[in-house]
Each structure stands twice: as structure tokens, then as C-alpha cells.
Amino acid sequence: MAPQQRKPHVCRNPDLIRGVGKYSRSKMYHKRGLWAIKAKNGGAFPKHEKQTVAAAPTEKPPKFYPADDVKKPLVNKRKARPTKLRASITPGTVLIILAGRFKGKRVVFLKQLTSGLLLVTGPFKINGVPLRRVNQSYVIATSTKVDISGVNVEKFDDKYFGKKVEKKKKKGEGEFFEAEKAEKNTLPQDKKDDQKSVDAALIQSIEAVPDLKSYLGARFSLKAGMKPHELVF
Amino acid sequence: MPFKRYVEIGRVALVNYGKDYGKLVVIVDVIDQNRALVDAPDMVRGQMNFKRLTLTDIKIDIKRVPNKKTLVAALEAADVKNKWESSSWGRKLIVQKKRASLKDFDRFKIMLAKIKKAGVVRQELSKLKKETTC
């Protein structure tokens, strides 16, 4: 008697046409077994007593009535979700970045973050693209896939890529500012280690495919005679 | 310049316009001055304007409007598929289709192969040049 084996229940009174059921009231009375329920209860339909509603605490009249009627905003039940991912983009797909500093670079897709942006890596050793977020609209998905099973991307989320908040220093001008600037430009060591650990497994699976490494190292560009709307990626 | 390819029953033609674009069909009957009854193993027999057809060199031996089984047998007997695919026209179409379906990675690999081939050719050429001048 496993619950999965239950057949879906068909309605007891199918429509002949809209508004007209197959069975009459008396037939339905018998079908629903109301006579059996009544018999079990000694001749009358079982009733239960009304549950007493606890008296609501008396509200005090408000001190202030607004001059004009204030409109209530409409109810909004929409939930925030990450952007719908195109079917052609799956973990391990090679993407072509179309805009920004790395335009034309072919890059490996890792996962979609909760903000909807795509987490992507070069790998850094191959084409200089670090772990980075990229918008789905600025990307062409190719049909080339890389084996991404050895890579652990659990720890990366939008907060990892957010700007670091510095403590404000109200006093001190001149010398203090110069010293601060020198520190900001270098990447913290733990980010470099993250990049290395992600890329290590990736580069192994990339080198297993011939020419894939030089493919990822080369930039994409349109040549003479290439029609983007006719190209298959 | 006399005509060499005639519209006749059994003439294999290529469809050059419409839903069946690119298919090879056989003319099984002529309806009037502009239309032919046309049939192929993978389509329902129907009429087509001659303007939609481009005649090929291949002709098969059939009677007027054969049934599908006879038509398929006649096509096999004449070996139309292989004749078409080995003809220069047929080969060109196959290459065009392949090129259109190339993916980005394939195009990259082809580029590498072209560069390699050009390098080998240039080496041989320089060798030959050396022999003739010295």
C-alpha cells in the first residue's frame, strides 16, 4: 500500500457539458455515501459545535486621521529569483564574453549565482580571466563543454565579489592617504589561492582535449565573410 | 548549345525553393506546361512547379507514376544516392552543409590545420626554389 501506487482520482460527477453533471442530486447523495455517514451518526448528519472566537482586544480610536484618503499599495506576491538561465548554458560550457575588458575571450562557465550573474573563470593561467561575474546578456554560449566535475565552487557567492568596506579615517590628510593607496591595489592572497585551486582541476580536464587549451587562449573575432546570424556556435 | 537535361519521367531533380528545399526528387509525371508530379522516398507524392526544380544529370528507369515501393526499388537499382554524392555538384552541397554546421571550436581547429598545411607547403616550395637557383 505504498502511497506512490495510488491512481489519480477521477471526479465523481463528470460534466456532460459545462454546468450539467452526469448524475442527479439523489444519485450523488448515494455516491458520496452521505446515507452511510448519517447511519453511522444515528440518523442525522454529524455536527460539531461552533468554536468560540476569542474576543479581539478593543482597539482605541486613532489619535490622528489623515486629511486625504491614503491609498493602500497593491499586494505584490512576486518572489525575487535569479535570471532564467538559457538552456544552452550548463556548467562547463565555454562562453564568449562580448563586452568589457575581456571581450572576445573564451571562458569556462562554473555556476549561476543567486543574483543571476554567471560565475566564470579563464582559467587564469590560460587566458588571464580570473574568477569573475558576468551577465548572461553579454555572453555567447558555444556548444563546447569542459568536464567540470573536479571543481568545487560551493564557496563562491555574490558577497565574495562585493567591494570591501574600509574603516573611515576622519583625521589625517596628506601622508596617510598615500600610504592607503599603496595597500589597496594588490589582491589578497586568499583570493589568489582560490583561483589556483579552482583552476587546477579545470586545467587538467582541459588538457585532456586536444587544442582546447589554445582555443581558450585565443580571442574570438569576426572575420571577413562571417555572418553572425548564420554562424553556429 | 542544345539542351542536355530534359524534363522526362524518371528525371531526378533538386528542389531549389520551398519546404522541401535541397531534396532530390524524381519527376513521375508531367501535369501541364508548368507543373510536374514529383515523388521522393521521404515525402508524399505531390505537384511542383518546374521553377522550383533544378534538373540533374541523373535519370532513372520508371513507368509513369509508379507506386512508392517500385520507385524506391528503381532508385536503389540506379544507385542514385551514390551517383549524386560522388558528382561534383553533390559534393559541393555536402561541403556547404558541413561548413554551415561548424561550431566555434571546429572553426578554430580548421584554422590551425590551415596554418599547418600552409607551413608544410611553403617549406616544400622553398626547397624547390633552392634547387632551381643553385
From TrEMBL, chain A:
Pfam families: Ribosomal_L6e, Ribosomal_L6e_N. GO terms for molecular function: RNA binding; structural constituent of ribosome. Residues 3-60 form the Large ribosomal subunit protein uL6 N-terminal domain. Keywords: Ribonucleoprotein, Ribosomal protein. GO terms for biological process: cytoplasmic translation. CDD domains: KOW_RPL6. Belongs to the eukaryotic ribosomal protein eL6 family. This is 60S ribosomal protein L6. It comes from Helianthus annuus. The lineage of its organism: Eukaryota, Viridiplantae, Streptophyta, Embryophyta, Tracheophyta.
UniProtKB/TrEMBL annotation, chain B:
GO terms for cellular component: cytosolic large ribosomal subunit. One of its GO terms (molecular function) is structural constituent of ribosome. Coiled coil: none annotated. InterPro entries: Rib_uL2_dom2, Ribosomal_eL14, Ribosomal_eL14_dom, Translation_prot_SH3-like_sf. It holds the Pfam family Ribosomal_L14e. GO terms for biological process: ribosomal large subunit biogenesis; translation. Residues 45-117 form the Large ribosomal subunit protein eL14 domain. SUPFAM superfamilies: Translation proteins SH3-like domain. Gene3D superfamilies: 2.30.30.30, 6.10.250.2270. Keywords: Ribonucleoprotein, Ribosomal protein. Belongs to the eukaryotic ribosomal protein eL14 family. This is Ribosomal protein L14.
